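User: Could you go from structure to sequence for me? I need the amino acid at each position, not a summary. Structure tokens:
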């Protein structure tokens, strides 16, 4: 073996083993400063919330901690504690704006310690923390959300004005218990001081001092917390693929699109992109809840992937986003972990069916064969063609049907969904539809004879990838199996030029398969039992069994992450991106319009269609979408 080969073999130590041999990496200065602010904020928050704590030995410790400026009201301690907690999160993420706020808050803490408490120890601790922040100011360079400062200022002005107005009403609404007749100037001064946690010049009887003080403190707390949230919230820029970016991505897909079945999904309109310095590779991503989430492998030449990955990581460091990759292949995972030092975990398997080897004959395909034959005997017929070959009226009918058969208000999907059916942009995509004429005496549906549809996007020059499948719930079961078989047979018999078809992605497929084998250990059986239990709400086992019907080739897919502690956050961001979790406020339900009880003049009474089984009307519309 040559020296070069020996060096290559010796350097081929897995990244996880190298990190284990090096031991845990020491905590960075921003993380330590953030942890200190968290502890201090929690103590200040506890001293303001629990009255007994302000008269205990713990309060003696809190007296020398920086942050609690005013000893006159518990609201001030609560406000400062919450501010420190919010600043701690931003300091850990190296946010420049959090550093500026902390540097501005600590001198106030020093003044409070010296003027109100006469505590030299507390002032020294505040100065020490301020000195650490100033010394390591270069490490706090992450850019904030450019929209956060504007909305924070607007919120502070508007909500602050509303708080002052409401506070003045609270103060002036108690003339019977107010001592004396203070002028309006003193009343407004009492409101302003109460909002920031100080005791004002007014005095009340019958215990109304506490009511007014806590009311004003709550208004000030609401103003400060909402403003701080808008100022320090994670940056979530609006992702938008420009026309120039789309043109460059299509050129890369034309040259290297056959490498990854998820490559075409990079053309989603709600993704951003970074290109390598040479322009021969790109990484598409979306920022969700502070997570910079990429999907699939980088687009383009494999030799240029490291340049695009380096740009991706630089953008993540610049904004202090958490980098993550969902659903990359084994080759992509190796490049990501080698170039960045990130870690990888197997997420599931992608089902790929080779058209040349697919057949309905044999014992393994008996269930699919019987289901397809039964549906065909019931009068269903299929059509498979390119999207560009559909006439505009038929394409519009397919779009409307797909939207009506969706069970959510918005389209789901991020890593394996395109979110559109467009003949101009995606003319090479394949549409498979199922049709059935209404029986005699049965009214036609809103979309004519259309009963189900599936949409496949291009995968290089000789493959397609399943993007969407929808069906009318009033149709017979097995529509998805029928259309997949029809697509595979059309790809083999017609001149579609398709040699491979990528189906749904099955999460944790290997765990489900190994857990049901003979001799599986208790850990595997327990893990499989948990996945089966979660399948009641998420399509985990059902997608695996559905894909396994077609005897596919399983291709593993991985999630790439920085730290194990980031996995829950990455998983939550991925569920947001896929559309399974939404943090938006729920919409108010629309009231149904009142319809006349009988037919209008010249109208015939409507006929009620009764399907087999005696059920009337239309069943709830649901969809099956791969993760």
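Assistant: Here is the amino acid at each position, in order:
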């Amino acid at each position: 073996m040559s020296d070069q080969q020996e060096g290559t073999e010796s350097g081929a130590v897995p990244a996880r083993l190298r990190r284990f041999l090096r031991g845990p990496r020491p905590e960075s200065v921003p993380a330590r400063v953030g942890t200190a602010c968290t502890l201090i904020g929690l103590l200040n928050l506890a001293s303001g919330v629990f009255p007994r704590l302000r008269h205990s030995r713990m309060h003696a410790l809190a007296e020398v901690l920086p942050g609690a400026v005013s000893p006159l009201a518990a609201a001030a301690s609560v406000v400062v504690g919450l501010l420190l907690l919010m600043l701690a999160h931003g300091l850990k993420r190296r946010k420049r704006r959090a550093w500026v706020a902390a540097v501005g808050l600590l001198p106030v803490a020093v003044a409070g310690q010296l003027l109100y408490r006469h505590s030299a120890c507390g002032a020294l601790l505040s100065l020490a923390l301020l000195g650490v922040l100033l010394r390591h100011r270069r490490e706090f360079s992450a850019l904030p959300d450019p929209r956060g400062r504007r909305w924070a200022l607007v919120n502070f002005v508007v909500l602050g004005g509303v708080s002052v107005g409401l506070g003045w009403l609270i103060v002036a609404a108690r003339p019977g218990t107010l001592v004396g007749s203070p002028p309006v100037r003193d009343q407004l001064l009492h409101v302003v001081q109460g909002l920031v946690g100080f005791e004002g010049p007014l005095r009340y009887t019958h215990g109304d001092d506490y009511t007014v003080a806590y009311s004003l403190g709550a208004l000030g707390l609401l103003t400060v917390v909402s403003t701080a949230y808008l100022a320090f919230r994670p940056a979530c820029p609006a992702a938008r693929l420009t026309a120039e970016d789309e043109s460059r991505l299509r050129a890369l897909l034309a040259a290297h699109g056959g490498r990854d079945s998820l490559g075409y999904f990079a053309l989603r309109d709600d993704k951003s992109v970074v290109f390598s310095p040479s322009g021969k590779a790109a990484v598409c991503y979306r920022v969700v809840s502070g997570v910079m989430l990429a999907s699939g492998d980088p687009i383009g030449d494999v030799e240029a992937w490291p340049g695009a990955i380096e740009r991706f990581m630089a953008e993540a460091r610049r904004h202090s986003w958490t980098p993550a990759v969902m659903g990359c292949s084994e080759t992509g995972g190796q490049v990501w972990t080698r170039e960045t030092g990130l870690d990888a975990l197997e997420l599931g398997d992608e089902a790929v069916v080779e058209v040349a080897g697919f057949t309905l004959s044999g014992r393994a395909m008996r269930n699919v064969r019987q289901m397809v034959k039964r549906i065909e005997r019931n009068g269903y017929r299929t059509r498979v063609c390119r999207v560009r070959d559909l006439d505009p009226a038929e394409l519009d009918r397919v779009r409307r049907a797909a939207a009506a058969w969706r069970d959510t208000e918005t389209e789901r999907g991020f890593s394996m969904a395109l979110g559109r059916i467009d003949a101009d942009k995606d003319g090479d995509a394949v549409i498979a539809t199922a049709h059935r004429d209404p029986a005699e005496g049965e009214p036609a549906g809103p979309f004519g004879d259309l009963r189900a549809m599936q949409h496949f996007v291009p995968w290089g020059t000789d493959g397609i990838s399943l993007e969407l499948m929808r069906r009318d719930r009033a149709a017979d079961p097995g529509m998805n199996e029928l259309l997949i078989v029809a697509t595979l047979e059309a790809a083999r018999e017609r001149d579609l030029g398709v040699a491979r078809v990528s189906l749904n992605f099955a999460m944790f497929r290997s765990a489900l398969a190994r857990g049901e084998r003979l001799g599986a250990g208790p850990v595997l059986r327990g893990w499989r039992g948990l996945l089966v239990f979660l399948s009641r709400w998420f399509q985990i086992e059902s997608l695996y069994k559905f894909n396994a019907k077609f005897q596919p080739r399983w291709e593993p897919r991985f999630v790439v992450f920085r730290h194990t502690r980031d996995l829950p956050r990455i998983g939550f961001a991925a569920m947001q991106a896929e559309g399974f979790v939404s943090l938006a406020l729920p919409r108010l339900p629309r009231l149904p319009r009142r319809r006349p009880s009988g037919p209008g003049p010249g109208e015939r009474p409507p006929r009620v269609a009764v399907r087999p089984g005696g059920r009337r009307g239309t069943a709830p519309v649901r969809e099956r979408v791969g993760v």
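One structural detail worth keeping in mind: The mean pLDDT is 76.
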